[in-house]
């Protein structure tokens, strides 16, 4: 078990202990402590156990690496959105202040409208009615699009980097597996494998004869190479002697 599992299980045992220690008169009155309500909320942590699937999914692993490498850009995005929400919620509040049926009674109430507008979701539950409010809303939507679009290329670049690195690693592993040649058994290995295998005597004699022929060919090639090298050396020495004379 990891930390998520422990946090998800602890509320059950705490609730069980408090219920067992609860007095009968308190139980009849139906009094519940605020701590129990908080523990019930903590139980939602068990939902995060779904992230265990990332162990078996390359795509989720790449996504996690991308988000981890893009934390700075994501932090800047949240910071810019926070500044925009404060500015445009204040602007729309003052633009709608003189309207009797204004849907923006305070600046904190306008935060929700600013977030929805900057993220281009547009629920429509809060809308400006005056000309000034509509102008502020238009600027808020445009600023939100530009703010979100700025860090996106960096995040996409990080994703492409980790994706190509993963695919290249898989291709290289497959290439090495295909191009790796098996070890050629030597004569002692053949003798050992003879006793452990079920091949017939004639097959074994053919394999042994092939190995001996290969060794003889290899020796002949070495002798030819050595003779050629010796002849070349003698020719060079004779030529040098004639030149000196």
TrEMBL record:
Residue stretches making up the Ion transport domain: 1-166
Gene Ontology CC: one annotated term: juxtaparanode region of axon
Transmembrane regions: 74-95, 135-156
Catalytic reaction(s) noted: K(+)(in) = K(+)(out)
Localization per record: Membrane
GO BP terms, alphabetized: action potential
Membrane topology recorded in Swiss-Prot or TrEMBL: Multi-pass membrane protein
Entry keywords, A to Z: Ion channel, Ion transport, Membrane, Potassium, Potassium channel, Potassium transport, Transmembrane, Transmembrane helix, Transport, Voltage-gated channel
Main subcellular localisation: membrane
Molecular function via GO: delayed rectifier potassium channel activity
SUPFAM superfamilies in alphabetical order: Voltage-gated potassium channels
Pfam families: Ion_trans (PF00520)
Designated name of the protein: KCNA2 isoform 7
